[in-house]
Backbone:
């Protein structure tokens, strides 16, 4: 069975999660068709074993010297689309390089041969204007002698360029060639909404406050966060008023599950983790912050808003005022720029005297 399985990138983050993973085992889909579900899904995931999903990804130049991945021509975003599969599935990715620079796509957490590595080390990349196929596989955990199990592929992973600007893709990462990759285990709970947050050097999704993404959900919806780290700095990810179990899914599996419950976690370059929370659980609707808890980083603009609306989608009291305050706040980066401009003007006029 072959289908195309893709879900929303940042541009659709405020809409109900679009995902046909649960339907992959029961719908016969035509290869090459992009199929989107419009209803929210909260039931346990179901999928046929051994599915091959074929998708085409376009690498495209974007304004402000950025580059992104997209599922359609002209549809590139930063971050790129969330790619999903179940343990045992295969993703067959046709990468179309529409730029005038060498680039690639390299995954974390899944299985691939050297020609799908996405690294110049293995000669695996797209030259300018070139189309190339990458095949990523996954597997379930297995029992082995002397150990309980060897791990499978399930987890929150990510993908990124490994060739633009050098053999490690540093230029591509700086400019936005990255995205989330999820490998689910059959039986996992599917979310209603899904958000990708990438701490990339001193930015969130290549933006700084107050222009960072505002993510939205209604009270009671299951919200999935995928957090990814890139760049050169140590970060921590903190979500106000919500907490999750520090394990593969964010849910406690039993009354005796020893997983620590947290609301803050290290997010360093190359790392990725994910979790689900119930929007507004125990705290109600409102405008809640998410940010890096390294204080100098949050002061510098590494902060955003998670808006939990009322269950009917209306705005809760006080939320718009909080958003207005956030958008009107001068973060340290903006304050420094303003101070530099003032100093330059003072210097040009010979100072103020005393």
Residues:
């Amino acid at each position: 069975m072959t289908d195309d399985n893709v879900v929303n990138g940042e541009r659709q983050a405020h809409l109900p999660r679009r995902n046909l993973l649960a339907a992959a085992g029961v719908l016969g889909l035509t290869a090459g068709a992009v199929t989107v579900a419009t209803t929210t899904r909260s039931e346990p995931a179901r999928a046929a074993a051994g599915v091959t999903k074929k998708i085409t990804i376009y690498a495209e130049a974007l304004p402000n010297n950025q580059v992104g991945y997209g599922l359609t021509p002209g549809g590139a975003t930063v971050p790129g689309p969330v790619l999903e599969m179940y343990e045992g599935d295969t993703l067959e990715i046709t990468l179309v390089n529409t730029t005038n620079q060498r680039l690639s796509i390299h995954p974390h957490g899944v299985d691939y041969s050297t020609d799908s590595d996405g690294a110049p080390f293995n000669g695996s990349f797209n030259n300018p204007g070139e189309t190339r196929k990458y095949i990523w596989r996954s597997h379930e955990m297995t029992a082995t002698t002397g150990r309980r199990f060897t791990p499978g592929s399930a987890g929150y992973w990510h993908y990124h360029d490994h060739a633009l600007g050098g053999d490690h893709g540093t230029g591509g990462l700086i400019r936005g060639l990255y995205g989330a990759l999820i490998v689910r285990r059959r039986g996992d709970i599917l979310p209603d909404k899904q958000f990708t947050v990438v701490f990339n050097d001193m930015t969130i999704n290549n933006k700084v406050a107050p222009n960072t993404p505002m993510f939205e959900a209604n009270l009671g919806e299951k919200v999935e966060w995928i957090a990814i780290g890139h760049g050169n700095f140590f970060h921590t990810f903190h979500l106000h008023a919500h907490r999750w179990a520090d394990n593969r899914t964010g849910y406690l599996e039993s009354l005796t599950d020893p997983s620590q419950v947290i609301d803050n976690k290290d997010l360093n370059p190359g790392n990725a983790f994910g979790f689900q929370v119930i929007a507004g659980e125990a705290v109600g609707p409102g405008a809640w912050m998410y940010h890096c808890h390294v204080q100098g980083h949050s002061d510098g603009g590494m902060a955003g808003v998670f808006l939990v609306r009322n269950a009917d989608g209306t705005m809760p009291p006080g939320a718009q005022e909080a958003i207005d305050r956030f958008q009107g706040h001068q973060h340290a980066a903006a304050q420094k720029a303003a101070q530099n401009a003032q100093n330059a003007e003072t210097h040009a006029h010979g100072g103020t005297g005393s």
